[in-house]
Amino acid sequence: MALSQEPSVWKEKQMGLHERNWPGVRGHLRQGPVAPERSLRIKAFYSLLPYISHLARRRRMRNFVQLMEIKPGTRVLDLGGSPRIWDNVDVPLDVTMLNLPGAIPSAELEDIRTPGANIHRFHHLEGDACNVAQFPDDSFDLVFSNSVIEHVGPEDKQDAFAREVLRLGKSYWVQTPSPWFPIEAHSGLPFYWFYPERFRAWLLQQSQKTLPTWWTEYIATTRVLTRRRVAKLFPNARIRVEFLFGLPKSYVAYSVGKRSH
Question: Tens digits of per-residue pLDDT, 109-163?
Fold first, then answer.
């Protein structure tokens, strides 16, 4: 996940709390704990979440290919993603992945660098998605982001992230979880973002007594976006609401512009 250098988020990456470490596509075994072992509620939540996320991800990427009119050879900049999500796209692409140092496990890097191991051509860079100064404007046909902007930091960091998306791509696709989905995607609590701020702070304080600090810091530094906030950050985008079981699960801001190969 290419993020601003927030220590708490970096801890999250080190602990393996990421969909690529869950059982799922191609039978990959997770490489580390995905939730505090002492919390039965969180363990149960994260035992179910991978399978729900896998179904949603497959449908999302199918819609991505159709709505973005994806053609072979499209040059994509993936901000903070995992190579695994591109397993769901059967159109060969040229994908540049920008992540924090160490965010992608070495085994996955070796896999994407192996000739013939994937239909896509991958490039891997280390950097901060809120400041991608190494690339000029419109360097890519498309900028892609999946569940990243809610982790980059406070609003000024989200603003910077959005500016880079708009600057770097002729087209873009940015997905982020909806606060209206009944079970919050990070904590596993119902309608977590609608609790009073003091109550959320109290819950985190109580969690610190039994759960690791990295876990509570991860929840405390996650900042989900409303649909209005997403529309403000991406004013020329269409906003697509993804539904799961008839409930709003995610928002996607996307814009199809002029592209060349």
Answer: 888 888 888 899 999 999 999 999 999 999 999 999 999 999 999 999 999 999 9
Contact status, residue 205 vs residue 136, Cβ threshold 8 Å: no
Give burial (CB, 10 Å; 0-12/13-18/19+) of 118: middle
Helix (H, G, I), strand (E, B) or coil at 171: strand
Look at residue 170 and give its three-state secondary structure.
Answer: strand
Tell me the three state secondary structure of residue 244: strand
Say what the pLDDT of residue 189 is. 81
Contact 240, 251 (CB under 8 A): yes
- The answer to whether the CB of 84 falls within 8 A of the CB of 64 is no
Sheet holding 247-255, edge to edge: 121-126, 94-99, 75-79, 140-146, 169-177, 247-255, 238-244
The CA distance from 214 to 9, in Å, is 8
Which amino acid, residue 164?
A: E
Residue 65 phi, psi dihedral angles, 5° rounding: -65, -40
Contact in structure between 57 and 177 (CB atoms under 8 Å): no
Counting beta carbons within 10 angstroms of the beta carbon of residue 93, is it exposed (0 to 12), middle (13 to 18) or buried (19 or more)? buried
Mean model confidence pLDDT for the chain:
81
